[in-house]
Amino acid sequence: MSVYLRVRPFSKEELSNNEDQACVVIENSQTVTLNAPKGSATMKSSEKGIGMSLHKFSFSQIFGPDTTQAELFENTVKSQMSDFLDGKNALIFSYGVTNAGKTFTIQGTPKEPGILPRVLESTFQYIGEHQYQGMDLKPYLRNGVQSLDFDQVKQERSTKAAIFASIKEYISYHLLVI
Question: What residue intervals traverse the membrane (predicted)?
Fold first, then answer.
């Protein structure tokens, strides 16, 4: 099992509030030191000899605040995804406190897609020409497939075209409104 740490950069608000940037110190590519913030309950307790103000943690790899979404994907998820597509089990999840950057890491932005959009794009690239191009099969219930006759295929194509046309119209209208 691999465990990765991604340290997010400070926000503009945190920087303007002079937040203590020495709380998280990346020692090397696998070790991080957490220092209790000055004035915190942990720091006050350690000054009284109760507990510690410094903790070290080890990870498979640590990614600093300058790490891009592409670098993170390439160095963490890509090999697991490849193994998964070859039939092996895999689990990827994000864990952390509120505002730690989990949503950004997983979803990203349109300009910097996160793990999930990159996995989906890579999956469809992987399956490429193996995709079934016909429209004579339709999912049925949970695990079933229903064969469609010629008239049903014609109806499915018509429905698909109508949905795409309405989406295109909706997007065009809303782009003009903006």
Answer: none
- 97 labelled binding-site residue: yes
101 in a labelled binding site: yes
Instruction: Give tens-digit pLDDT for 28-38.
Output: 999 999 888 77
**Model confidence pLDDT, tens digit, residues 69-78:** 999 999 999 9
Total number of domains constituting the chain: 3
Is 145 marked as binding a ligand? no
Q: Is the pTM of this model over 0.85?
A: no
Please report, for the chain, how many H helices and E strands are present, in that order. 7, 7
Range of the domain at 53: 1-65
Report whether 102 belongs to an annotated binding site: yes
Distance of alpha carbon 86 from alpha carbon 107, whole angstroms: 24
